[in-house]
């Protein structure tokens, strides 16, 4: 056993155990590690924002390069502070409205293009999907399965008619596809969390305690 002598490795290991202590019950050690993480994360985010966002994009153009029109976005951003002054707290609505309006206009077209149009294009069956020299037998099969799955899932969310007859059959098939999708997403999430847990165990048993190489 080769226990590490680096104080930062000891700090990391002890904080890891403090977080793991929550598996027993909520306790002061877990609360300390949780509050420390939140404080460090906020401090890092604030420092990052000042040095990587405000200074190069606002302070340098305004105070060094003399671009006076940068005063306008600075004033709009300053209105966020008005939230802490009850008498003029309504002024915070102005930057919030500008931010939401801008990002809505920028994100909606990109989302429609990436998540709707591209998905529709990927679902449409074309002659290329059935050319075995391009897609292969497996590609042809999955193209058909994808098309059937999309149609059946959409039919499940069609509530203008009662789910009977053909619509009832397709909607039940759609439920199967939905459950498969949810199960795969949940399994991926669990796998990612388990991977993080394994990484922490490897750190505790390896670099910290030296039990494993």
H/E element order: HHHHHH
Distance between the termini: 10 Å
Radius of gyration: 27 Å
Approximately what portion of the residues adopt beta-strand conformation? Answer: under 5%
Please estimate the helix content: over 70%
Determine the number of helices (DSSP H or I, runs of at least 4 residues).
Answer: 6
Overall morphology: extended
**Major sheet, described briefly?**
none
Name the structural class. mainly alpha
Mean pLDDT: 91
Oligomerization category of the chains in this entry: single chain
What ranges have pLDDT less than 50 throughout 5 or more consecutive residues?
none
How many beta-strand runs? 0
Summarize the structure.
The protein is mainly α and 213 residues long. It has six helices and no strands.
Task: Describe it.
With 213 residues, the chain is mainly α. The chain has a domain at 128-213. Helix content is 73%, strand content 0%. It is built from 6 helices and no strands. Helix 1 (7-20) crosses helix 2 and helix 5 crosses helix 6. The longest helix is centred in the C-terminal third of the chain and has 44 residues, at 165-208. The chain is extended, with a radius of gyration of 27 Å. The termini are close together. The mean pLDDT is 91.
